[in-house]
């Protein structure tokens, strides 16, 4: 079980801080269950309620500084998540985001960056679906790395580029 004040990665929601662990009085909520009350980092007004025993929503602790640095160093070796079929691609990205696996997030970002480059070379724009999943994967990845490494979110890409060069 996580503790109040701890930072976690929650499904496709990204990095959150645990504000409370309590029973909630809301319609549709099981009043006997304990819930994590989460505050998404970067969304001052947002609140997420997750049952402490949820098997549907994956939550994990944020990575350590050493793990974050190792991940950045490994970025060039992480495989693309190439799926040729449009419908299957969206489902694959959606599932990858839900896993809370930062390697999967890197795969999505790398794949969609490559796909966008190819589409631009053909005179086409990136698709709305690609843009949506690129943003979601970057938010999860950069949000967690930013918190762990103490680098502002908006400077994360530069930090990564500098570390890899």
Quick structural summary:
This protein is an alpha+beta fold. The chain has five helices and five strands.
For this entry, give a set of tags.
single chain, 165 residues, alpha+beta, Methane Monooxygenase Hydroxylase, Chain G, domain 1, 2 domains, five-stranded antiparallel beta sheet, 5 strands, 16% strand, CarD-like_regulator
How would you describe this protein?
Residues 1-113 form the CarD-like/TRCF RNAP-interacting domain. This is CarD-like/TRCF RNAP-interacting domain-containing protein. Pfam families: CarD_TRCF_RID. The chain is an alpha+beta fold and 165 residues long. The protein has two domains: 7-60; 63-164, Methane Monooxygenase Hydroxylase, Chain G, domain 1 (Up-down Bundle). Helices cover 45% and strands 16% of the residues. It is built from five helices and five strands. It has helices spanning 65-74, 86-98, 102-121, 128-149, 156-164, and strands spanning 7-10, 14-22, 35-40, 48-51, 59-61. The chain has a five-stranded antiparallel beta sheet. β1 and β2 form a beta hairpin. α2 runs parallel beside α4 (128-149) and α3 crosses α4 (128-149). The longest helix is centred in the last third of the chain and has 22 residues, at 128-149. The chain is globular and about 55 Å long.
Strand and helix layout:
Blueprint: E1 7-10, E2 14-22, E3 35-40, E4 48-51, E5 59-61, H1 65-74, H2 86-98, H3 102-121, H4 128-149, H5 156-164
Antiparallel strand pairs: 1-2, 1-5, 2-3, 3-4
Helix pairs in contact: 2-4, 3-4
GO biological process, one term: rRNA transcription
Domain CarD-like/TRCF RNAP-interacting: 1-113
Protein name: CarD-like/TRCF RNAP-interacting domain-containing protein
């Amino acid at each position: 079980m996580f503790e109040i004040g701890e930072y976690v990665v929650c499904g496709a929601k990204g990095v959150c801080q645990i504000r409370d662990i309590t029973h909630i009085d809301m319609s549709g909520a099981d009043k006997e269950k304990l819930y994590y009350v989460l505050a998404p980092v970067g969304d001052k007004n947002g609140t997420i309620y997750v049952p402490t025993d949820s098997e549907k929503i994956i939550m994990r602790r944020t990575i350590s500084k050493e793990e974050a640095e190792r991940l950045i160093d490994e970025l060039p070796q992480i495989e693309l998540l190439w799926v040729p079929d449009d419908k299957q691609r969206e489902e694959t990205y959606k599932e990858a985001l839900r896993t809370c696996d930062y390697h999967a997030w890197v795969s999505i970002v790398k794949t969609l960056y490559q796909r966008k480059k190819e589409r631009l070379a053909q005179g086409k724009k990136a698709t709305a679906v690609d843009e949506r999943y690129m943003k979601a994967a970057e938010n999860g990845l950069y949000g967690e790395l930013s918190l762990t490494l103490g680098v502002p979110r908006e400077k994360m890409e530069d930090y990564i580029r500098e570390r890899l060069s």
